[in-house]
Amino acid sequence: MKKRIIFLNGIILFLTLSLFLIISVFILNYYNNKSSERELNNHVLLISELYNGENAEEVINSYQKANKNLRITFISFDGEVVKDSLIDIEFESHLDRPEILNLGEVYTRYSESLNTYMMYLAHKDNGLYIRVAMPQKSINAIVNSFLLFCFLTLIALTIITTLVLNSVNKKALKPLNKVVNKLSKLAGHDSYYGDDVETISSHIDDINLLINEKINAIIDEKSKVDFIINNLEQGVIVVNSNKELILVNDYVLRLKNFKLVEVLNKNFIYLIRDISFQEAIACTIDEGSISSFDLPYKSKLYLINITPVNTEWTNFENAKNGAFITMSDVTEERKIEKMKREFFANASHELKSPLTTIIGYQQMISEGIITSMDEILDASKRTSKEAIRMHQMILGMLDLSKLESKEETSFEEVNLKDAVIDVLDLYQKELSEKNITVSLNLEDLYLLMNPNHLNQLVRNLIENAIKYNIPNGELKLSISNQKKELIIQDSGIGIASEDQSRIFERFYRVDKGRSKDKGGTGLGLSIVKHICNLYHDNINLTSKPNKGTTVKIQFNNFLLK
Ligand code: ADP
Questions:
Q1: Rounded to the nearest whole angstrom, what is the distance from the C-alpha of residue 508 to the centroid of ligand 1?
Q2: Strands 548-554 and 538-544
Q3: CATH match for 2-143 among 3.30.450.20, 1.10.10.60, 3.40.50.1110, 3.30.70.3270
Q4: pTM above 0.70, yes or no
């Protein structure tokens, strides 16, 4: 490009100078001719003055002393050359010469006798034609030297303008190169210097492509990060050191029912209304402290973690800290923690009383407080009853922990009817002791289930229906294949409505004494509920004190047979 500019510049210069030269030559020629004409005219007039009809030679001699280039010819009216100042030969008739034919007019033509171009002018005087001529050589010499001058000027001007252009070009491109260099580095290129606009512009195109690629990559990265941040099951908030919200993810916006534009760059108190929460954030920003606490919000519990952040984008006017806040829903976690605490408290309490009984009786025997065989036998019976209860309680707790841990279990095709009949067989003794009338209406109902789970479920329910039944009471068991349900109905003591919602809790017993007496652990219904949850079966209990209790289970894990 630079070479092209210089070449173009040379051509323009050459054409300009050539035009100037041509016009100048024309002008010079014109004025030179005019002056030569005037000169010739003056010479003719002067020679006419000097010539008296006889002194041609004398006139020529004296004239030639002053101007050797001037040719003076005296021609008679019949065309014969009487005297010529430059050539002394015989000439043919000169009457046909244009300057003779048109007296007083200057003619330039080639002179055969002098081998050069001459300017001619003739006058008539004292019976002769006086013709004066001078060579045009002098004009050509001027033109030639002018041409040489122009050519040298052209070369000099080309060199000077090239140098000037070069330096102007460099100066003009310097700020542009500076910017392009910066962009070049930004796009990951080495430093760059372009010496003409065309290469710089093509380099800018390259940079543009690279920067576009980088911008697209950044946009992609941002979309990824946005996607991740906004799909977190956790709230994320970033507050800068000027206490403005600079990042709020969708989780928080959904929770607070805000749109991003409504809170972004606003003071964090617009989003966070809780005073202790606000104070904790302010404390992190001002002092860099870390806080972690549970915050109740809309019937849920959120774990709030606030840590200081010290980055370029969180710090306003070189302040120290921004705050990075996370919010996690810990409602379930806290509930489970509470349940665990309660469970351990209950379990240790429940285990403590049979153990105390056992230890007490054993001490009485070992310390000789009871000595008679009957008393010892009675103590031993009571001890073993408590030990069995403890054993059942531990088995129940193990069953519950297995069910809660949802450990892998194998499913089999089991017939509910068979399971019910098997359990009833186990309780024949208790049934006859209480003289309970059992009525059965059992259809086959095939379930896909772990046989142990089915046995636990049926056993706990039938056991309760017998345990809490009255003497001579009734127990109705029915299985409907069509409705996919099991109904266990007893005519026992029933459960008060205020207790009905709690009987599925672990260790919950309506009447502790009665339950203990009957060897109850308070875990049976809890195990039943867990099994139903595991198989997504629906359990429903209706009861009226002193009337009886009905438990209905609708199975969803049935097999169509
Ligand atoms: P337990 O080992 O004490 O029977 P469960 O979890 O099986 O523990 O039952 C919890 C409590 O619910 C029992 O203590 C009892 O008070 C009550 N209950 C359960 N089933 C019946 C029923 N069929 N009739 C009356 N009360 C019942």
A1: 8
A2: antiparallel
A3: 3.30.450.20
A4: no
